[in-house]
């Protein structure tokens, strides 16, 4: 069974631009969560989607948004990029929503110049 | 607020020895814990998880121990191999949700 896939793997953007990252969960998984990983803040939860509905949101500004499609694929969007948004963005999928094992993808490395 | 992880930043062990990586959490309502291994350039890889109604769980060469009294969990790796070299994270969640709070990670270095 294929793992979680994320595209693109690498992105370079400039301040003020916006970016969309994509995540395809493991087949059959319906919950998708997004995390940001930086050297300074570590791994931080962004949001979680299940059945196209956001179930949980972390402490990030409204510039960070996401959505989930009927096939469970998910996208996250960051608008008006700031230098501090440079990070590894990780997507994780799980079968269900209740403390279920989350499997991570390889991440998208975003660099904001 | 909730926090997870009072890791040592680096742990060095000899190949073949057992490794113990420790983690502490602050929220007594945390009911699910999970350990991940992350190698350079890769996403976190699931190792083992444990729910709060258990004290111990074993996998292949790994054991997780949960002490709810002192809010502490540990990951034991038996017969540590060079391929075990990575950063190890513990994470926890509360209330049956999938929102994970991660610790800061421990770099495990395996010396030959």
Describe this structure as you would to a colleague.
The complex is a heterodimer of chains A (113) and B (112). Chain A has 113 residues and is mainly β. Chain A contains no helices and 11 strands. In chain A, a hairpin with a 3-residue loop joins β4 and β5. The radius of gyration of chain A is 13 Å and the shape is globular. In chain B, 38% of the residues are buried. Chain B is an all-beta fold and 112 residues long. Classes of the chains: A mainly beta (113), B mainly beta (112).
Radius of gyration of chain B: 13 Å
What's the end-to-end separation of chain A, in Å? 37 Å
- What is the percent of helical residues of chain A? under 10%
Q: Note poorly predicted spans of chain A.
A: none
The termini of chain B sit apart by 41 Å
- 3D shape of chain B: globular
- Count of beta strands of chain A: 11
**What oligomeric state is this?**
heterodimer
Structural class of chain B comes to: mainly beta
Biggest pleated-sheet summary of chain A = 7 strands, mixed
């Amino acid at each position: 069974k294929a793992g979680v896939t994320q595209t693109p793997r690498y992105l370079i953007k400039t301040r003020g631009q916006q970016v969309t990252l994509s995540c395809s969960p493991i087949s059959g998984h319906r919950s998708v969560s997004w995390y940001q990983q930086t050297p300074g803040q570590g791994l931080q939860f962004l949001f979680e989607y299940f059945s196209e509905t956001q179930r949980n949101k972390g402490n990030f500004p409204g510039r960070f948004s996401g959505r989930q499609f009927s096939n469970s694929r998910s996208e996250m969007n960051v608008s008006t990029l700031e230098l501090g948004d440079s990070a590894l963005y990780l997507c994780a999928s799980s079968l269900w929503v209740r403390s279920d094992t989350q499997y991570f993808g390889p991440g998208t490395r975003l660099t904001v110049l | 607020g909730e926090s997870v992880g009072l890791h040592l930043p680096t742990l060095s062990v000899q190949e073949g020895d057992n490794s113990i990586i420790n983690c502490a959490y602050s929220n007594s309502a945390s009911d699910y814990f999970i350990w991940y291994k992350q190698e350079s350039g890769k996403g976190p890889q699931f190792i083992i998880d444990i729910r709060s109604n258990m004290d111990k769980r074993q996998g292949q060469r790994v054991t997780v121990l949960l002490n709810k009294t002192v809010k502490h969990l540990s990951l034991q790796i038996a017969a540590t191999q060079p391929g075990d070299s990575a950063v190890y994270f513990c994470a926890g969640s509360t209330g049956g949700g999938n929102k994970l709070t991660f610790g800061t990670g421990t770099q495990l270095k395996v010396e030959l």
